[in-house]
Design brief:
The complex is a heterodimer of chains A (about 550) and B (about 130). With about 550 residues, chain A is of the alpha/beta class. Helix content of chain A is about 50%, strand content about 5%. Chain A has one domain: Methylmalonyl-CoA mutase (TIM Barrel, Alpha-Beta Barrel). Chain A is globular. Chain B is α/β, with parallel strands linked by helices. Chain B has a single domain, classed as Rossmann fold, CATH 3.40.50.280. Helix content of chain B is about 45%, strand content about 20%. Chain B contains 5 helices and 5 strands, in the order E-H-E-H-E-H-E-H-E-H. Chain B has a 5-stranded parallel beta sheet with strand order 2-1-3-4-5, sandwiched between helices. Classes of the chains: A alpha/beta (about 550), B alpha/beta (about 130). Chains A and B meet through helix 5 and helix 19 of A and helix 1 of B.
């Protein structure tokens, strides 16, 4: 039954024609000219959308959205030695930032101390160099870690770093249960996308679960894993692939913890997420909403989680670094603003906005300030944060949320049939899917079917937007090695060696590593020493180089 | 002359960004070239050794970590030492203009920067290959 008005619209729509032969999202979903009221949707509104703060959390995890509390503005920062980064942290806090987020350098991320040959040229370059409890103390000097929540982006070498964080808390006399924050520690996505690993997936997942278990008992406000779509997306995945692979990684950690006898409700509240926010505005919003609904259902139906906290998908988000252009870098401010608005409309709990210069170097202070101000403008000027989930009920947004969910569920079904994520990684399934999408995107760009302003079209002399860049001093590496060697000299070598022996034993015996690591780093054991034991006991993972 | 052009696409050091390396490897393969991809975390030594063993015409190094001024000279020196300087070295990544001209003087034949099309790279390789012969 089509009304007269509907028929008229159809006629006009046809005669007006369209400016492109096809319209599709970044996930290749065909976009209708007009989204219309969907009878299937309206009849199931209560089940599919519910109320904010209620299962299945499509409309958000808090009853009042941002009316009670804004999202945490958390800019990722780190460079040079721990003192350099501590200074940047204090700067960000005085600028009105509400949480901290630590970027580590490549050697720390790969589990090498500054004096290791493989660290050459990389110390303090892309993030802060950190190897000892003393470094941790300098990094957070003058910052109350029971008041400010801290995020640490580190994965294969996360366990000694978290141990140093807690050991510092103990030194300062905090109760660990008062220390809030997040450590990324999502090792599965390393094999899939970011490629920072030490040992093969199975023992690596075991270490992650040790940390989940430890936090569920000793540090209940701390999220021991941030299950990350960000890097999967940046490596070339579509929104649908990002959603499916990330949720499946979450399912994998939950399964492993349940297998070792933990009850789902004892740890699930500590599983947090991290999304990329890319250019396709509505598809990103749909991804956040579909993700919450899917995770709530998995937790309830697959795992029997009863606590609402276990069913809630709480997430950090970062605007898409890969979408920024080296050409005409000031345009990136506009990209970031739109992506950040999508994250807020999608209901994120915390947000990093990229600085305009991040394709070229680590950000300057000024570029970071503009990025933070962008969040403050969204929060305080646009009104976006003044009502809960303002796009709910939009024909298009609800339709797209359903589409994204359905396609991600298909992919999850495939992973189930494959025998799970560790197996899928072994045969290169997610890696190849991502490479394929990255390739397709590049081909579409080159065929003129996709546009990047300032790169494929609207090009000009980039000098018109020349911006100053941040430089890391080359002195840092030399100084760091000296400091590190001095640290080794003043520790008790007997004690350190004894603790390293205990770490090795815990690796072999499969007893929880975290208790022993907290004591080990307190006695001066370094990040690189712990990771060296992991390499020796569990073996080293090598890139299979799937193309 | 019907032999396909043979290329080693390489990642050196701790840098894990491999999106570009994989896209270019595939594009060169689709253009009919014979492509070997090293995978991540290689050393300059292992890359030069594979290049000689595989008897490639080109080594393409993708680098986004900022360590290009140490990586490229190492590879070029090793090629010289091993009398394999006939292998053409080129690269891709985020590399500032002043470093590109410096690398050019050292013997890096071409650097592709962000936004370069794969077709641009394919054309350049074909041209370079025919002028070498």
């Amino acid at each position: 039954m089509t009304s007269e008005k509907r028929k008229n619209w159809e006629t006009t729509s046809k005669s007006d024609g369209e400016r492109k032969t096809f319209f599709k999202t970044l996930s290749d979903i065909d976009i209708p000219t007009l989204a219309e009221e969907n009878s299937q949707l309206s009849s199931k509104n209560e089940d599919k959308l519910g109320y904010p703060g209620q299962y299945p959390f499509t409309r958000g995890v808090r009853a009042n959205g941002y009316r009670s509390r804004l999202w945490t503005m958390r800019q990722f920062a780190g460079y040079g030695d721990p003192d350099d980064t501590n200074k940047r942290f204090h700067f960000l806090l005085t600028q009105g930032q509400t949480g901290l987020s630590t970027a580590f350098d490549m050697p720390s991320l790969m589990g090498y101390d500054p004096n290791h040959p493989l660290s050459e040229g990389e110390v303090g370059r892309e993030g802060v160099s950190l190897a000892t409890i003393e470094d941790m103390e300098r990094l957070f000097k003058g910052i109350d870690l029971t008041k400010v929540t801290t995020s640490m982006t580190i994965n294969c070498s996360a366990s000694p770093v978290l141990a140093m964080y807690f050991a510092l808390g103990k030194r300062r006399g905090y109760s660990l249960n008062n220390m809030g924050g997040t450590i990324q520690n999502d090792i599965l996505k390393e094999y899939i996308a970011q490629k920072e690993w030490i040992c093969p997936p199975a023992p690596a997942v075991r270490i992650v679960c040790d940390m989940i278990e430890y936090c569920s008992i000793n540090a209940k406000r701390f999220n021991p894993v941030s299950i990350s779509g960000y890097h999967i997306r940046e490596a070339g995945a579509t929104a649908v692939q990002e959603l499916a692979f990330t949720l499946y990684n979450g399912i994998t950690y939950a399964e492993e913890c349940v297998k070792r006898g933990l009850h789902i409700d004892s740890f699930a509240a500590g599983l947090s997420f991290f999304w990329d926010v890319h250019n396709d505005f509505f598809e990103e919003i749909a991804k956040f909403r579909a993700g919450r609904r899917m995770w709530a259902k998995f937790m309830k139906e697959r795992f029997g989680a009863l606590e609402p906290r276990s069913q809630m998908l709480r997430t950090h988000a970062q605007t898409a670094g890969v979408s920024l252009t080296a050409q005409q870098p000031l345009n990136n401010i506009a990209r970031v603003a739109l992506q950040a608005a999508a994250a807020v409309l999608g209901g994120t709990q915390s947000l990093h906005t990229n600085a305009m210069d991040e394709t070229l170097s680590l950000p300057t202070e000024n570029a970071v300030r503009v990025a933070l101000r962008t969040q403050q403008i969204i929060a305080h000027e646009t009104g976006i944060a003044d009502t809960v989930d303002p796009l709910a009920g939009s024909y298009y947004v609800e339709w797209l949320t359903d589409q994204v969910e359905a396609q991600a569920l298909d992919l999850i079904d495939k992973l189930d049939k494959m025998g799970g994520m560790v197996r899928a990684i072994d045969i290169g399934f997610p890696q190849k899917e991502i490479s394929e999408s990255a390739y397709q995107f590049q081909m579409e760009l080159e065929a003129g079917n996709r546009t990047i302003v300032g790169v494929t079209d609207f090009k000009e002399d980039t000098d018109s937007q020349k911006i100053p860049l941040h430089k890391v001093s080359l002195e840092v590496e030399k100084n760091r090695i000296e400091e590190f060697n001095a640290f080794l000299k003043q520790r008790s070598e007997t004690k350190a060696q004894e603790m390293l022996g205990l770490v090795r034993q815990a690796c072999i015996n499969e007893t929880n590593l975290m208790n022993i690591l907290v004591d080990a780093v307190e006695s001066g054991v370094t990040l690189g020493e712990v990771c060296k034991i992991y390499r020796e006991v569990f073996g080293e993972y090598r890139d299979p180089g799937f193309v | 002359m019907t032999r396909p052009i043979k290329i080693l696409v390489a990642k050196i050091g701790l840098d894990g960004h491999d999106r570009g390396a994989k896209v270019i490897a595939r594009a060169l393969r689709d253009a009919g070239m014979e492509v070997v991809y090293t995978g991540l975390h290689q050393t300059a030594d292992s890359v030069v050794n594979s290049a000689i063993q595989e008897d490639v015409d080109f080594i393409g190094i993708s680098i986004l970590s900022g360590a290009h001024m140490t990586v490229f000279p190492k590879v070029l020196n090793l090629l010289k030492e091993k009398r394999a300087s006939d292998i053409v070295v080129f690269g891709g990544g985020i590399i500032p203009d002043e470093d590109i001209s410096e690398l050019g003087k050292l013997g890096v034949k071409k650097i592709f920067t962000p936004g370069a099309a794969t077709t641009e790279c394919i054309e350049w390789i074909k041209q370079e290959f025919s002028s070498e012969d």
